[in-house]
Amino acid sequence: MKQWTKEIEINAPIEQVWKFLDGSVENMQQIMPQVVEQKPIKITEEVVGSVYRQKYREGKRTEEYDIETLEYSNATNEKKLKVGFTLAKMFEITAFYELNKINDNKTSFTYTVTNRPLKWFVKLFLLFATDKVVVEFLERVKNVAEAETSR
Questions:
Q1: Helix intervals (H) in 56-131
Q2: Alpha-carbon gap, residue 45 to 61, rounded angstroms
Q3: Is 82 helix (H, G, I), strand (E, B) or coil?
Q4: Is 132 exposed, middle or buried (0-12, 13-18, 19+ CB in 10 A)?
Q5: How far apart are CA 146 and CA 149, in angstroms?
Q6: Which residues make Cβ contacts (< 8 Å) with residue 90, sequence separation at least 6?
Q7: For the whole model, what pTM was predicted?
Q8: To pair with 41 at 20 to 30 A between CA atoms, which of 63, 106, 112, 124?
Q9: Do residues 118 and 106 touch, judged by C-beta distance below 8 A?
Q10: Calculated CA dihedral for residues 60, 128, 92, 2, nearest 10 degrees
């Protein structure tokens, strides 16, 4: 299993950043443009245990998988969202988003991804995996949230 954790400071209020992670599909697509569709399959009152079917486009291919909410916390100064899914029957992936309010206009965003291969031969791919995708995602969230804040 591989795990990457990166943190970035965003010059935007915590609620501004949170809406891209815990909001509409349109908001999510601003930071995850490959997400084509997300439909609720099972919604729980406490959010944890909720399942969404997500379609994700990679080049010409579209993958479809179910994402389960594993952890959820929406407090004023601290917000957490952890989701898990299986990608192409090859990888079990979790994504953990943590937001902490630094002040009214600044948010700390920590992103942790784990990637566990489900087949022996895909373990080789993980040997060459880097944190590039994680860093790019953090930068995209920062750019989108700050651009909207400066409007």
A1: 123-127
A2: 34
A3: strand
A4: exposed
A5: 5
A6: 117, 118, 119, 122
A7: 0.91
A8: 112
A9: no
A10: -150
How many other C-beta atoms lie within 10 A of the C-beta of residue 137? 19
Task: Scan for tokens 């245990």, then name that residue.
Answer: 49
Which two tokens mark 53? Answer: 């079917």
Which pair of tokens denotes residue 74?
A: 């929406």
Distance CA 142, CA 43 (A): 29
Task: Read off the pLDDT of residues 28-47 as tens digits, 9 standing for 90 and up.
Answer: 999 999 999 999 999 999 99
Q: H-type helices in the chain, by residue range?
A: 14-21, 25-31, 123-127, 132-149
Nearest CA to 51 among 33, 34, 35, 38?
38
Q: 97-151 pLDDT, tens per residue?
A: 999 999 999 999 999 999 999 988 877 777 777 788 889 999 999 999 999 877 7
